[in-house]
Hints:
The protein is mainly alpha-helical and 114 residues long. It has one domain (5-102). 55% of the residues lie in helices and 11% in strands. It contains 6 helices and 2 strands; from the N terminus they run ββαααααα. The chain has a two-stranded antiparallel sheet with strand order 1-2. α1 (25-35) packs antiparallel against α3 (54-67). The radius of gyration is 14 Å and the shape is globular.
Amino acid sequence: MIANRRRGEIAAEFDGKPYRLCLTLGALAELEAVYAADDLGALVERFSRGRLSALDIIRVIGAGLRGGGSAISDDEVGAMQSANGAAGFAATVAELLAATFGAAEQAETPPKNP
Length: 114
């Protein structure tokens, strides 16, 4: 599975199958609605606390899978398995949020010439 980081996509494997995840604008709107967040800033603040519940992880991965083109419900995500268990799911969420909000891209940007 090829993922384009510049478009905010990541690749992940669940139940031994490759998937593309992307928090598209629609996926972010879905998460705003679920968390009653007024804007993206409130959503970022919620996720930057570093304390995600299992339900948070399911919701973010579900939104990312749907944004990446897979018709998978949150209930289906909750039944999936990751090669690294809960830690694998948490790492996927961290990578997806970094790809979405630019942390990965900033790290890839070469320094400007003086």
